[in-house]
Amino acid sequence: MSELRPFALVRDGDQWVRSAFDRTFLEYQSGIVELAWTTKTLASDTPATTPGAGLAFDNQCRLYHSVPGAGAVERVRWAARDALAPSGGAAASVNLFASVVNAALGDFASGTAPSVLHNPRGVAVDENDRLFVAESGGNQVLVYDLWSERLLRRIPFAGERPTDLAAHGAFVWVVLAGTGRVVKITAGGGPDDVVLPAGCTNPSRIAVSLDGTMAVLCDAAEGAAQTWILDHTGKARETIAEPFATDIEWESSSVLVIARRPGADFIRLRVGQPARELVGPLRARGYDGLGIVRTPERVPDASGHECHCGGTCGCDGGSFRIGYWTANGLRLAVPARLLYEREGRVTTYRLDSGAFQTQWGRVFLDACIPLGTSVRIRALALDETDDGATMPRTPPASLERVTILRPDLSPPMPPLASTPKDDVVEGRIHERESGRELPWTQPGSDDSFRTYEGWLDAPPGRYLWLTLELRGNTQSSPRIKCIRAEHPAHDYLRRLPKLFSRDEREASFLRRYLAMFEGFLGEAEARGVDRDVLLTPRTAPDEVLPWLASFLGLVLDERWASAPRVGGRTADARRDIIELAAWLFRFRGTVAGLKKFIELYVGVDVILLEHFRLRAGLSAMLGGSGASAASSMLGVGFRLGDSRSEPGMSASAADAHAHRFTVLIPASLTEDQLDVVRQILVVHRPAHTIFDICTVGAGMRLGRGLHVGLSSMVGATGGFATAQLGNSALGRGAIIGRPSGGSTIGASRLGTTARVR
Fold first, then answer.
1. Any idea of the CA torsion for 618, 619, 625, 630, to the nearest 10 degrees?
2. What is the distance between the alpha carbons of residues 326 and 331, in angstroms, rounded to a whole number?
């Protein structure tokens, strides 16, 4: 028996791209190889109107659509409108600017604005639900408050013709087609110039990603249309030439969608990395060529997970659906059907075992092989390579641009003189019933990739090259994520009489036959050698965590596995709790112990407020007298009101304060998450105590119990939501009105950023 042997590895996109590809694609970001695909991409010769119209969603998922010909901006309830519904079944559009208060002189002005705008084009909505409209014919940008339904500001651009807008947070970028400028504004400030790189001279459309990356489309709807990708400072990262492009939008933080002429498919590209990768296009039937938009609807990944982190957890920030306008209203673009090649190959660079005359053993592939597809493998092993010609390193066709980091470190490709003359790849692989060969590492239940095993039937040699042949049926393709080539092979043949290995054919058969038994025994021993990982909470597999917790007398709540991801938190709460279980039991029932237990689950610092600290004499009161007033200290004991005048105050201080505490959690939790916190308190608090839980979702309570810096804090909002009649409880599930910024002394203008009531 032997432990798990070393192996040579090909895994990520930077390694795969150094190989040779033949009719195969590479997903550079995920490091996945698949058969090359094509689509019956719909082309169109229909001329496009430029600049186009505008589409934007607010925070309540309502759609705003500019109609340049009618001089209007329509609001559509997206969830209620069905473009495929029978006539009369769709929600009616509302023209926002049919009648609006003229804000030129504040609310003292009489009359209303014109009901028809002068060629409105781009629209955008900032994080505060302020609608920005590029009135191209009027050479101005209108800022409209969607909550108070009034015009806040007019931003004139004399002769510069604003055509498109893009919002990110509170900032809005404006394309001025008349002068070829881009400026940045807010609802109350700007414009500020954005420095464009040389060559970006005729901007037409603009889009900003979730992480603030800017894309500018120049010469829209023309043969020389070009998209510029800019960083936060305005420096050009790369340029993309796509003739007759009409609009651009970010599907995620790294995937850019380029719309073309009406009726043509949308092009998708993954940008912002060493390689620019072509992604499957989107089919957009009935597209009018006037604009596209990123909808609030997210696209789950292959496992069905939807990430709402905004890119903080290291993922792509979440993908969204792309919508476009048609004669029947808004529709969603759908992925076009891909037609895969029937056969393709990828040949790796040289893998080095470090020792001459190495007999290579098994090979393991992490792959997804659908029904009707297959993967076969061929190996070439040599001890020395001459200086002759080698196989050319051909890039995958899916990468429009690729930058190989440190190309001088790329191992050589196989020599042409040693490559097999026949064009047949017959090495077969089979799926492992026991999963990965690596000890204590198994894929998740929702992972479509499985581990396959094969034998490297090659003569001894230090260097190894692998050729993988992928076969499909045009509808689906095998996908390969990782290769592990084991070296050296087992030595069982040496332990048998020489009689069994004199003939090379018999020796090859026995070597492959005995690999099954040696592999099982070797992997079992490797699990035994690495059994210490089962006793470490950070490395133990998920399925053994309850077993590990039982050693400490801790019963795990499976809901801890889905702890709130507050502040970009990604760790499993169960592992944290097991690791600190001894400390938690030592301080069980204390303030420090309860605080730490809850903080491990919610991922943020919590405040545990004991009510005896609120008794008169221990907390200062504004307007009080005596020692209480003398000990007032803002941020520690400062309090508004007098406890002697509190309604419903018990005469007994013990009844009001003793054995009671409140847990304040500065995060918004769901009901299930609150149940977990309650369960922690019920089990681990002192049995004679009574507790309350307060989160930011409940808002601030004025009066009894409000202490600045102790039971309250100044920070982000607890979350305001629009009240829905028949589905809200006033004071609990609904809030009338909305928060708004106050006036700044010395920086406000009457009728623009301030009003007199």
1. 80
2. 7
Residue the block writes with tokens 């920086």: 747
Name the DSSP letter for residue 422.
S
The answer to whether domain 7-36+340-529 has CATH 2.60.120.260 is yes
User: How far apart, in Å, are the Cα atoms of 299 and each of 125, 268, 285, 446, 672?
Assistant: 22, 15, 20, 17, 24
Query: Is the pLDDT score of 88 beyond 70?
Result: no
CA dist., res. 694 & res. 678, Å (int): 11
For residue 51, whether the previous peptide bond is cis, meaning omega lies within 30 degrees of 0, is yes
Question: Which tokens sit at 15?
Answer: 């390694």
Give the H or E element holding residue 702.
none
Matching residue, tokens 């009648």: 99
d(CA 292, CA 331): 10
Cis geometry, peptide bond prior to residue 488 (ω within 30 degrees of 0): yes
Contact 449, 303 (CB under 8 A): no
What percent of the residues of the chain are helix, what percent strand, and what percent coil, each to the nearest 5?
15, 30, 50
Instruction: Give 104's strand partners.
Output: 106
Please state, in angstroms and as integers, the Cα–Cα distance from residue 138 to each residue in 117, 119, 390, 630, following that order: 8, 7, 65, 63
% the chain with pLDDT above 90: 38
Count other Cβ atoms within 10 Å, centred on residue 147: 14
Residue 474 binned pLDDT confidence (cut-offs 50, 70, 90): very high
**For the chain, domain boundaries:** 7-36+340-529, 542-698
Q: Measured between alpha carbons, how far is 529 from 518 in angstroms, rounded to an integer? A: 16
C-alpha 385: how far from its chain's center?
45
Residue 16: other Cβ atoms inside 10 A: 25
Close Cβ partners of 265 (under 8 Å, ≥ 6 residues apart): 39, 41, 42, 281, 282, 283, 284, 336
Structure tokens at 118: 């002068």
Q: Which helix (H) or strand (E) holds 494?
A: none
Give per-residue pLDDT as tens, 510-539. Answer: 989 999 898 899 888 988 888 888 998 888
Euclidean distance between CA atoms 371 and 367, whole angstroms: 13
Q: Encoding tokens for residue 568?
A: 């970009």
Q: Which helix (H) or strand (E) holds 212?
A: none
Top-confidence residue, 482 or 232: 482
**Phi-psi group of 519: left, alpha or beta (phi > 0 → left; psi -120 to 50 → alpha; rest → beta):** alpha
Written as one letter, the residue type at 735 is: I
d(Cα 185, Cα 138) in Å, to the nearest integer?
A: 18
In eight-state DSSP terms, residue 581 is: H
Asked whether residue 640 carries a pLDDT value surpassing 60, the answer given is no
Establish whether the linkage from the previous residue to 120 is cis, with ω within 30° of 0: no
Q: Find out whether 122 and 71 touch, Cβ atoms under 8 Å.
A: no
Give yes or no for a contact between 551 and 523, defined as CB atoms under 8 angstroms apart. no
Q: What is the pTM of this model?
A: 0.78
Across the chain, mean pLDDT equals 80
Residues in the chain: 757
C-alpha torsion 305→308→309→310, nearest 10: 120
pLDDT of residue 741: 53
Beta bridge mates, 608: 663
Nearest to 543, CA basis, from 528, 532, 530, 556: 556
User: Which of 314, 318, 294 is CA-nearest to residue 305?
Assistant: 318
Backbone angles phi, psi at 87, to 5 degrees: -60, 130
Q: What is the SS3 assignment for 120?
A: strand
Q: How confident is residue 361, by pLDDT bands cut at 50, 70 and 90?
A: very high
Strand pairing category for 660-665 and 690-695: parallel
Structure tokens at 183: 């400026």
